[in-house]
Amino acid sequence: MITSLSEYESLLNSDDLEDRHRVARDSAPAEVWLRIISEVPEYRAFVVQNKTLPLDVLRILAQDVDRDVRFTVAMRRAAAKDETIAGLLASDSDAGVRAALAKNPKLDQTVLQQLARDEDEWVRECAQDSLAQRAQSS
Question: What's the CA gap between 113 and 18, in Å, rounded?
């Protein structure tokens, strides 16, 4: 478990491959994640890749100013299952973020249908492809 910002920085900057893997898979209390993303914004791109992030932290990252961070959130299965996060990302200003969400296999059918009517052709196509794949699977 990661217990502090300084420990996270140490792991992130380590040359040891095992330390770098811990950055992506070790859990941390929500307060630690919140401190990391608020005090060192450039770490958000790394934090968002951690597999154990609490939904509260993902909700904050879903509103990040960095499109790449929001894009990564959109690809997370846990994010697609959360109504708040899915709603934020479905109305994101960036079509790439909305398209990534449309490709997420865990996205709610209702949100996927909303994206199938998106103003952007690429987003619509991604959503329609996902809907077609789901129809074939059932």
Answer: 41
